[in-house]
Automatic annotation (TrEMBL), chain A:
Name of this chain's protein: Sugar ABC transporter ATP-binding protein
Gene Ontology cellular component list: plasma membrane
Subcellular location field: Cell membrane
Keywords: ATP-binding, Cell membrane, Membrane, Nucleotide-binding, Repeat, Sugar transport, Translocase, Transport
Membrane topology: Peripheral membrane protein
Domain called ABC transporter: residue spans: 15-251, 274-518
Coiled-coil boundaries: none
SMART domains: AAA (SM00382)
UniProtKB/TrEMBL annotation, chain B:
Highest taxon of source: Bacteria
Pfam families: BPD_transp_2
Subcellular location: Cell membrane
Identification of the protein by name: ABC transporter permease
GO terms of molecular function: transmembrane transporter activity
Amino acid sequence: MTGQLAADTPVPPLLDVVGLTKRFSGVTALDNVSLDVRAGEILGLLGENGAGKSTLLKILSGAQSASSGSISFAGRPYAPAGPDAARQAGIVTIYQELSLIPTLSVAENIFVNRAPTGPFGLIDWRRMRRQARDILARVNLSLDPETPVSALSVAEQQLVEIARALSLESRLIIMDEPTSALTETEVQQLFGIMEMLRRDGVAIMFVTHRLEEASSMCDRMTVLRDGRLAGHLLRDGGRVPVPRIIEKMVGRAASELYARPTRRDNAGAVRLSVRGLRTVRAADAPHAVVLDGIDLDLRAGEILGLAGLVGSGRTELARAVFGADPIASGTIRLDGQLIAPMSPADACALGIGLVPEDRKQQAIFAMLPIRQNFSIAALDLFSDGLGVMRPGREGAALAGYRKAMSIRMSSPEQAIDGLSGGNQQKVILARWLARDPKVLIVDEPTRGVDVGAKTEVHQILVQLAERGIAILMISSELPEVLSVSDRIITMRQGRITGEMPAIEATEESLMALMALEARPGDPQ
Amino acid sequence: MTSPVTQRGRGGFDLFRVLKQFGPLLFLFALMLVFAITNENFLTQLNLFNVARQISITGLIALGMTFVILTAGIDLSVGSLLAFCGMVAAVVAKGGTANTLSLSSNAGAGYGWGAALLAAVVVGTAAGFVQGLVITRLRVPPFVVTLGGLTIFRGLTLTLSGGGPISGFTPGMRWFGTGLVGPVPVPVLIFGLAALLCHVVLRYTRFGRAVYAVGGNAEAARLSGVRVDRVLVSVYMIVGFFSGLAAFVLAARLNSAEAVAGIGYELTVISAVVIGGTSLFGGIGGVGGTVVGAALIGVLVNGLVLNNISSYTQQVTIGLILIAAVAFDRWLKARARA
């Protein structure tokens, strides 16, 4: 089982994906992708956001079905009807958002739906605990199987999921960004388990943004780009060097979609100045990243791009400045004045706006009309002294933005969830513009926005900057950061790891600052 | 390229779109039609005002409950709070807890109906404020806080009154329960004016917009600068205010404040709001629907009584019709969306 196979022995792949294509109403998320994974190897699956990784994972885990192409697993055709069928077949996917049931114990989670039973079909708790302990031992986890999952750290929960996968005799374990919420020590522990699984002949598909980790752990890598296969990378002798991975991931000429605007040189005085900003981990958000001494200056009329991976602390920074999360120490100045927004309402009143990352959960009121979605942040401006709305003022303002931003809607009374993502986002931008903010923070402004509307959103942001608004734009899409920003900062693990004018930045240089551990004296 | 606007946003007449706006109202008319055919006394002015007067007490509370349910909250304490506020009003009106139908025995000892009314609404509003604070500050779910309130206010009422009623109010106070303005009973007039006011507040004020926003998506509301906690405390104060007002009108009508008043009202009130199309998940609905929902329940009870349906069968029928009304409304909405 553990013996090294000679290099020239033809090994039939455990998983063989050929010409996989997935279309969603007009959009091709995955276009003719082929890859294979062999028993006892770690295959890295890499690509930027939107490259098609999640679609591929959803098909492999049975959450979606492919439009065309074929998959075979362990020599048989593989087309799971659902996640449970995928598990039965021997493929387990461990997502970033872990899928354990927090209120149940570790043992109950391991044996969910298949608890060992005794006479009369009653659950045999003693046997269940004993077996759970044995299973946990396989991943070097010594915990009481009675512990509720909610009491475990993210790392421990991951190991429980891996243990459960092993107990299901899984032959392929897919790990989606398993290290993004782990500390360095925990990452090393996880890698130890991964090496052990590899020796035992389990295949692992390792999806990660952290190229250094991919480089050190993976036997081979498959890189996706814009839904297509960008290439395979083989480790020959040593590791696959990180620059070669970046080259494959980025590998395209600057697309016309991200035509760099002409240089603007209209940055004014410092509007927002943050010094030594720190946060502490809140009890109700144990997985949030802790900000560790953030310094930044944002000038009137500039777009400051903030590039960082998931888990870098970029969203936490936005929320802290906006008063949505508490600050442990540090200062925020707006136009030179010390401010301490205790709530988003305070930040709004001071002239700060936030277009949040998750439009559906955090920005729109799905069932309410566009008009109400638009005016919610500026109700004070659209009403008289008694708090009675002035529909005329409100309607005129909305009509103005509808024209200026070409928001396509049938009527302001239409429910906002009938609009496309791009038009929804324009309404949310208009919501803040109605307040005429001094500082506007936009978090992933074009997430879920179709390609055509992306350019429009970018143009709107540039126009706003030209009006003198200071814009902090958070994005994990590097071409977007490069084309829209005047200046770029990068974050990793709650710290700012670099700063440069956009004109000097390249995807490679940003990726290096976002994905690599910043060490003093490192050549960049 | 797909169209940015979905089909239902386009013009054109869609029968179901119109129907879904008026689902509960259609149901009410259908029911009235049935009763008008089956009983000649149903569609008389006297009977209709009688129905209106019957629904005005729970209707008033339902107006306040609409605000609460629009924020995805609930208030189970309204029935007990009504009893408590009524008892407070009676104590203030009579200047003590003596239960005397004869006014002459302690004439001039009370503080008048104005003070009684003020006491009832102040106590009701204050109770709502306290419950709202517990909900927002201590993060106890509204269901639990107001379930506690249900017991607490009933207990306070019994403590205050010693278990018995306080009866016998001045004609000035009784006018609020039994008086007429033209042909219109005063409680109906109060309910109508209050409904109009609530409608205006919900539709045409900043506060109303904030209520819908908090119920539609509390996190989005917070990130849009809405002070969510203040809105939540306010809606519990509003339902408390209306419980107090309803208590005053009820005491005036019965010429008595009863320690056992309002038992089970919370269910009638919540039924009226929900039948009226307000979603228990918040963000959808309004006062118009609640008035229709309250009327529907009132008409149903009245029509069944007129048709000599036994009170046991009545209960079964009411339950079935409540479910049918909401199912009909959901069906219309689903068709309109398709």
